[in-house]
Amino acid sequence: MADDSPTVELSRTELQAISDFAARCARPVLGTFEDTRPGDTRPRAAVEAAEAFVRSGERTKALRDAAWAAHRAAQEARDAGQAAASAAARAAADAAGSAFLHPLAKATQVRHVLGAAAHAARARELAAREDPPVAADHLAAVRELAGPVVVRVLRRYPPAPPGGGRVGELLRRLDALLR
User: CA dist 114 to 16, 55, 59, 126, 178, Å?
Assistant: First the structure.
């Protein structure tokens, strides 16, 4: 079956702005992961790889590998019952993965733009013993981090899709705030 989705024009500068936003969202929750899983540097390496992409504009194998490694760290934390640490590692994985935003006008691509922010909000909420106002406050702060380039790129895509549990709910809330 052919995919007839229209494409979205994305410049390297726009991708760098998306990754900068994602890294700035993920970096503050690294401590949530590191306090729970000391010595595991994979999420920090993913955020640093995203920041390197922001400086260089080069989407490298190392960047992709860092995203996958942080994703594995999130799975391991989840499997160990460390939900807040898992969400923080997912924020880092999404920060590194943001550089790979696809130019297809599909709602699923919104996760590349806002996934790090949504997972960081969930990490904060979980660390505060499931306190929803903590996530809401985080989303309000993140709204200020998203500059005009991030908002312009986001508006080229359809609204965030349904599903995804609590993180999906946070993602859709942030999507609505920014549009």
Answer: 14, 20, 19, 18, 10
